[in-house]
Write a structure and sequence with these properties.
The protein is of the alpha+beta class. The chain is about 30% helix and about 20% strand. It is built from eight helices and eleven strands. The strands form three sheets. A five-stranded mixed sheet has the order 1-5-4-3-6. A four-stranded mixed sheet has the order 9-8-7-10. Strands 2-11 form a two-stranded antiparallel sheet.
């Protein structure tokens, strides 16, 4: 999946539109930004007052319920998540939760919520319903890029984005098998690849990581056009974006790749100022590749990335 796409410098029209698209500087698939809140761990659709971006490319989600669950507990909890999609390809229900071995939700852990609220300014009782509600609002059609990171719950928000994207991909394919995440497992040696299917403003993402001894030794994130030319080499685009956003693909793509190799942990990758959406997309895809590496699944991940009207 991806966040709001920027434009290619291949045309004068695209360049002139750059200032509008650079607000988050992403590249394709799910885009736009908004946030919402709700006071329940599961939320039902109420998109009447929420603007939902129109899907212009990528497969619509098929009706059904799609499930994902972590296999391992971390600090006593593991994530379980499901989305329900109606016949119009919209998410009508999202159930994202973290449960202990007794099936009790972290939302109901009074002492944990009290302590986290004091330290982070938020807690599961607040951010879980907020994230769930986003999926029945602005992200109802699978627009994962519209999911904002909740202040004070950055890591949980990014994990939510990653898991949502994987559920959306399953819904597009109509695959109702429960997605199993071997969270916390060591990454197995090998090269893991992810490619987007659809072009947005002339470009799509290609991404590969190489793992050795549980460390990411190489990261190759790129945005390429139909001729295989990298956005890094689009001189006109890079020049215009630099003027507007103070950064460009020639700068932020190598920075993101370097940050991932340095940390071997997608959640520790720094967002590049001026390229927020591209950074968020990078982190989300890196997490999905990490999940593949934890399983040792070297099959190339093909993302039928959704493109939304801006």
């Amino acid at each position: 999946m991806k966040f709001k796409s920027v434009i290619t410098g291949a045309s004068v029209v695209a360049i002139s539109a750059l200032a509008l698209a650079l607000a988050g500087c992403g590249s394709s698939s799910s885009s736009s930004s908004s946030s919402s809140s709700k006071k329940s761990s599961s939320s039902s659709s109420s998109a009447k007052t929420t603007k939902v971006a129109k899907l212009t490319a990528g497969s619509k989600m098929k009706a059904g319920t799609y499930n994902l669950e972590e296999e391992n507990y971390s600090h006593g909890y593991r994530t379980k998540m499901s989305i329900t999609v109606n016949n119009n390809g919209k998410i009508t229900k999202s159930s994202y939760d973290q449960v202990n071995k007794n099936g009790k939700s972290k939302v109901d852990d009074t002492s944990y919520n009290k302590q986290m609220k004091k330290i982070a300014g938020t807690n599961p009782k607040t951010y879980m319903p907020k994230l769930n509600k986003t999926l029945t609002g602005s992200a109802a059609t699978g627009n994962v890029g519209s999911i904002d990171v909740v202040t004070g719950a950055t890591e949980s928000s990014k994990t939510f984005q990653n898991y949502t994207q994987q559920l959306v991909q399953a819904a597009q394919a109509g695959n109702k098998s429960t997605i199993k995440i071997d969270n916390g497992a060591k990454m197995k040696d090998g090269t893991y690849k992810l490619n987007e299917k659809n072009y947005s403003h002339g470009y799509k993402v290609t991404f590969a990581i190489t793992v050795k001894d549980n460390k990411i030794t190489k990261s190759e994130y790129n945005q390429v056009n139909k001729n295989g030319k990298s956005k890094v080499d689009d001189a006109a685009y890079n020049k215009q974006m630099k003027k507007v956003a103070k950064t460009n693909p020639k700068t932020y793509q190598p920075a993101l790749n370097k940050s991932l190799v340095k940390s071997s942990d997608p959640t520790k990758v720094d967002v590049v100022t001026g390229a927020t959406e591209s950074s968020n997309t990078f982190i989300m895809y890196a997490e999905q590749l990490q999940n593949a590496a934890q399983k040792g699944d070297t099959n190339t991940i093909t993302v039928d990335n959704m493109i939304f009207s801006e």
